[in-house]
Specification:
Blueprint lengths: L2 H11 L12 E4 L8 E6 L2 H9 L4 E6 L11 H12 L3 E4 L2 H5 L5 H9 L4 E7 L2 E14 H11 L5 E3 L5 E7 L8 H6 L4 E4 L4 H10 L2 E4 L2 H4 L2 H14 L3 E3 L7
Parallel strand pairs: 2-3, 2-11, 3-4, 8-9, 9-10
Antiparallel strand pairs: 1-4, 5-6, 6-8, 7-10
Protein backbone atom coordinates (compact mmCIF):
# COMPACT_ATOMS: atom_id res chain seq x y z
CA UNK A 1 0.00 0.00 0.00
CA UNK A 2 1.34 3.44 -0.91
CA UNK A 3 2.24 5.65 2.04
CA UNK A 4 0.44 8.68 0.62
CA UNK A 5 -2.80 6.69 0.29
CA UNK A 6 -2.72 5.62 3.94
CA UNK A 7 -1.83 9.13 5.11
CA UNK A 8 -4.57 10.72 3.01
CA UNK A 9 -7.13 8.33 4.49
CA UNK A 10 -5.97 9.00 8.06
CA UNK A 11 -6.08 12.76 7.53
CA UNK A 12 -9.68 12.53 6.36
CA UNK A 13 -10.91 9.85 8.77
CA UNK A 14 -9.40 11.46 11.88
CA UNK A 15 -10.12 15.06 10.75
CA UNK A 16 -6.45 15.70 11.44
CA UNK A 17 -6.20 19.18 9.96
CA UNK A 18 -9.54 20.42 11.29
CA UNK A 19 -8.91 19.96 15.02
CA UNK A 20 -6.79 22.59 16.83
CA UNK A 21 -3.95 21.08 18.83
CA UNK A 22 -0.53 22.03 20.19
CA UNK A 23 0.72 18.67 18.89
CA UNK A 24 2.10 18.46 15.36
CA UNK A 25 -0.39 15.93 14.01
CA UNK A 26 -0.28 14.11 10.69
CA UNK A 27 2.68 12.65 8.81
CA UNK A 28 5.89 13.81 10.49
CA UNK A 29 8.47 11.57 8.81
CA UNK A 30 8.10 9.67 5.55
CA UNK A 31 9.79 6.47 4.42
CA UNK A 32 10.59 5.15 0.94
CA UNK A 33 6.90 5.39 0.04
CA UNK A 34 5.12 2.16 1.00
CA UNK A 35 3.37 0.70 4.05
CA UNK A 36 3.67 -3.03 4.65
CA UNK A 37 2.85 -3.23 8.39
CA UNK A 38 1.33 -0.62 10.71
CA UNK A 39 2.39 -0.16 14.32
CA UNK A 40 0.53 1.88 16.93
CA UNK A 41 2.04 3.30 20.13
CA UNK A 42 1.19 5.80 22.84
CA UNK A 43 4.58 7.52 23.16
CA UNK A 44 7.37 8.51 20.75
CA UNK A 45 10.44 6.77 22.17
CA UNK A 46 13.37 4.57 21.21
CA UNK A 47 12.14 1.25 22.71
CA UNK A 48 8.94 1.50 20.63
CA UNK A 49 10.94 2.25 17.47
CA UNK A 50 13.29 -0.67 18.12
CA UNK A 51 10.33 -2.98 18.73
CA UNK A 52 8.72 -1.77 15.51
CA UNK A 53 11.87 -2.60 13.54
CA UNK A 54 11.99 -6.05 15.13
CA UNK A 55 8.33 -6.70 14.26
CA UNK A 56 8.73 -5.58 10.63
CA UNK A 57 6.63 -2.42 11.12
CA UNK A 58 7.47 0.38 8.69
CA UNK A 59 4.73 2.88 9.58
CA UNK A 60 3.99 3.92 13.18
CA UNK A 61 1.02 5.93 14.44
CA UNK A 62 1.91 7.67 17.72
CA UNK A 63 -0.57 9.33 20.07
CA UNK A 64 2.14 11.52 21.62
CA UNK A 65 4.59 12.81 19.04
CA UNK A 66 7.81 14.77 19.49
CA UNK A 67 6.62 18.26 18.59
CA UNK A 68 4.38 20.42 20.80
CA UNK A 69 4.12 23.96 19.53
CA UNK A 70 7.80 24.51 18.78
CA UNK A 71 10.58 22.83 16.79
CA UNK A 72 13.19 20.73 18.55
CA UNK A 73 16.84 20.35 17.54
CA UNK A 74 17.69 16.91 16.19
CA UNK A 75 20.14 16.14 19.00
CA UNK A 76 20.37 13.76 21.96
CA UNK A 77 17.35 11.43 22.37
CA UNK A 78 15.51 13.04 19.43
CA UNK A 79 18.51 12.29 17.17
CA UNK A 80 18.64 8.66 18.33
CA UNK A 81 14.94 8.18 17.60
CA UNK A 82 14.99 9.85 14.18
CA UNK A 83 18.18 8.00 13.25
CA UNK A 84 16.60 4.63 14.15
CA UNK A 85 13.50 5.46 12.14
CA UNK A 86 15.43 6.46 9.03
CA UNK A 87 17.84 3.52 9.24
CA UNK A 88 14.88 1.14 9.38
CA UNK A 89 12.85 3.00 6.73
CA UNK A 90 10.01 3.65 9.19
CA UNK A 91 7.59 6.52 8.62
CA UNK A 92 5.53 7.95 11.46
CA UNK A 93 2.24 9.75 11.91
CA UNK A 94 0.88 11.52 15.01
CA UNK A 95 -2.73 11.78 16.18
CA UNK A 96 -3.27 13.46 19.55
CA UNK A 97 -6.58 15.28 20.12
CA UNK A 98 -8.07 13.93 16.87
CA UNK A 99 -7.72 10.42 18.32
CA UNK A 100 -8.96 11.42 21.77
CA UNK A 101 -12.25 12.78 20.46
CA UNK A 102 -12.98 10.63 17.40
CA UNK A 103 -16.59 9.34 17.53
CA UNK A 104 -15.68 5.78 16.48
CA UNK A 105 -12.07 5.00 17.43
CA UNK A 106 -11.45 7.80 19.93
CA UNK A 107 -10.15 6.88 23.39
CA UNK A 108 -13.30 8.13 25.09
CA UNK A 109 -15.82 6.70 22.62
CA UNK A 110 -14.10 3.30 22.84
CA UNK A 111 -14.18 3.49 26.65
CA UNK A 112 -17.95 4.02 26.59
CA UNK A 113 -18.42 0.99 24.32
CA UNK A 114 -16.19 -1.23 26.45
CA UNK A 115 -18.02 -0.18 29.61
CA UNK A 116 -21.42 -0.67 27.98
CA UNK A 117 -22.53 2.90 28.71
CA UNK A 118 -25.16 3.84 26.12
CA UNK A 119 -26.61 7.05 27.57
CA UNK A 120 -23.72 9.43 26.80
CA UNK A 121 -23.05 13.03 25.76
CA UNK A 122 -19.95 14.98 24.79
CA UNK A 123 -18.24 16.57 27.80
CA UNK A 124 -15.27 18.72 28.67
CA UNK A 125 -14.88 22.10 26.99
CA UNK A 126 -11.39 22.76 25.61
CA UNK A 127 -10.69 25.49 23.05
CA UNK A 128 -14.03 25.00 21.38
CA UNK A 129 -14.06 21.20 21.32
CA UNK A 130 -15.37 18.57 23.74
CA UNK A 131 -12.67 16.22 25.02
CA UNK A 132 -14.56 13.49 26.85
CA UNK A 133 -17.85 11.70 27.38
CA UNK A 134 -20.47 12.17 30.07
CA UNK A 135 -22.63 9.18 30.98
CA UNK A 136 -25.70 8.25 33.01
CA UNK A 137 -26.24 4.73 34.33
CA UNK A 138 -29.75 3.32 34.11
CA UNK A 139 -28.78 0.88 36.88
CA UNK A 140 -26.57 2.74 39.39
CA UNK A 141 -23.63 0.92 40.97
CA UNK A 142 -22.01 1.39 44.33
CA UNK A 143 -18.48 2.72 44.20
CA UNK A 144 -16.74 -0.63 44.67
CA UNK A 145 -18.91 -2.29 42.00
CA UNK A 146 -18.13 0.58 39.66
CA UNK A 147 -14.37 0.18 40.20
CA UNK A 148 -14.64 -3.56 39.61
CA UNK A 149 -16.46 -2.87 36.33
CA UNK A 150 -13.71 -0.47 35.24
CA UNK A 151 -11.04 -3.02 36.13
CA UNK A 152 -12.79 -5.78 34.22
CA UNK A 153 -13.45 -3.80 31.03
CA UNK A 154 -10.50 -1.38 30.80
CA UNK A 155 -7.92 -2.10 33.48
CA UNK A 156 -7.19 -1.53 37.15
CA UNK A 157 -7.24 2.13 38.23
CA UNK A 158 -3.92 3.49 39.50
CA UNK A 159 -5.49 5.76 42.12
CA UNK A 160 -8.94 6.59 43.50
CA UNK A 161 -10.18 9.56 45.51
CA UNK A 162 -13.44 8.52 47.17
CA UNK A 163 -14.73 11.91 48.24
CA UNK A 164 -18.30 11.72 46.96
CA UNK A 165 -21.45 9.59 46.83
CA UNK A 166 -21.18 5.84 47.28
CA UNK A 167 -23.84 5.41 44.58
CA UNK A 168 -22.56 6.07 41.06
CA UNK A 169 -25.23 7.17 38.61
CA UNK A 170 -23.57 9.96 36.61
CA UNK A 171 -19.98 10.50 35.55
CA UNK A 172 -17.56 11.48 32.84
CA UNK A 173 -14.56 9.83 31.18
CA UNK A 174 -11.73 11.81 29.57
CA UNK A 175 -8.48 10.07 28.72
CA UNK A 176 -5.00 11.33 29.52
CA UNK A 177 -4.21 14.63 31.25
CA UNK A 178 -7.81 15.80 31.65
CA UNK A 179 -8.00 16.65 35.35
CA UNK A 180 -8.46 20.28 34.23
CA UNK A 181 -12.08 19.24 33.54
CA UNK A 182 -12.69 18.75 37.28
CA UNK A 183 -14.47 22.13 37.74
CA UNK A 184 -16.89 21.25 34.93
CA UNK A 185 -17.57 17.85 36.50
CA UNK A 186 -18.31 19.57 39.82
CA UNK A 187 -20.57 22.11 38.11
CA UNK A 188 -22.48 19.20 36.50
CA UNK A 189 -22.93 17.50 39.91
CA UNK A 190 -21.36 14.29 38.59
CA UNK A 191 -20.79 11.39 40.95
CA UNK A 192 -17.44 10.45 39.42
CA UNK A 193 -14.81 11.82 37.05
CA UNK A 194 -12.49 9.31 35.36
CA UNK A 195 -9.26 10.66 33.87
CA UNK A 196 -5.69 9.55 33.28
CA UNK A 197 -3.60 11.22 35.97
CA UNK A 198 -3.84 13.66 38.91
CA UNK A 199 -2.45 17.12 39.50
CA UNK A 200 -1.52 18.26 43.00
CA UNK A 201 -4.00 21.15 43.04
CA UNK A 202 -6.90 18.88 42.14
CA UNK A 203 -6.85 16.90 45.41
CA UNK A 204 -8.20 19.65 47.65
CA UNK A 205 -10.69 20.84 45.04
CA UNK A 206 -12.14 17.33 44.64
CA UNK A 207 -12.24 16.73 48.39
CA UNK A 208 -13.89 20.04 49.24
CA UNK A 209 -16.43 19.60 46.42
CA UNK A 210 -17.26 16.04 47.46
CA UNK A 211 -16.71 14.30 44.13
CA UNK A 212 -15.16 10.90 43.40
CA UNK A 213 -12.20 10.90 41.02
CA UNK A 214 -10.67 7.79 39.45
CA UNK A 215 -7.30 7.82 37.70
CA UNK A 216 -6.83 5.10 35.09
CA UNK A 217 -3.26 6.09 34.27
CA UNK A 218 -2.40 8.35 31.35
CA UNK A 219 -0.84 5.51 29.38
CA UNK A 220 -3.55 2.92 30.01
CA UNK A 221 -6.39 5.32 29.21
CA UNK A 222 -4.83 6.17 25.85
CA UNK A 223 -4.19 2.67 24.54
CA UNK A 224 -7.91 2.26 23.82
CA UNK A 225 -8.21 4.38 20.69
CA UNK A 226 -4.95 3.16 19.17
CA UNK A 227 -6.02 -0.46 19.42
CA UNK A 228 -9.41 0.35 17.89
CA UNK A 229 -7.76 2.36 15.10
CA UNK A 230 -5.46 -0.58 14.40
CA UNK A 231 -8.41 -2.90 13.94
CA UNK A 232 -10.11 -0.35 11.69
CA UNK A 233 -7.05 0.03 9.46
CA UNK A 234 -6.53 -3.73 9.29
CA UNK A 235 -10.06 -4.10 7.94
CA UNK A 236 -9.86 -1.06 5.67
CA UNK A 237 -6.53 -1.81 3.96
CA UNK A 238 -6.05 -5.53 4.64
CA UNK A 239 -2.69 -4.67 6.20
CA UNK A 240 -1.25 -6.27 9.34
CA UNK A 241 -1.28 -4.01 12.39
CA UNK A 242 0.56 -4.37 15.67
CA UNK A 243 0.15 -2.49 18.96
CA UNK A 244 3.61 -1.58 20.28
CA UNK A 245 3.55 -1.60 24.10
CA UNK A 246 5.85 0.49 26.26
CA UNK A 247 3.96 1.14 29.52
CA UNK A 248 5.12 4.06 31.64
CA UNK A 249 3.36 3.03 34.84
CA UNK A 250 1.69 6.46 34.88
Amino acid sequence: MRLDEVVSYLDEYLKTKAIPDSSLNGLVLENSGYVKKIGLAVDFNLPVIELAAKEGVNFIIFHHGPYWGQPLPITGPIYKRIKALIENDIAFYVSHLPLDIHPEVGNNAVAMRLLGFDDTQDFGEYHGIKLGKKFMLQNPKNFDEFLAHLSDKIGKPLLCWKFGNDEIKTGAFASGDAISLLPEAIENNLDVLIVGEPRHYSYSLAKDAGINVVFMGHYQSETLGLKALGEHLKSKFNLPTHFLPEPTGL
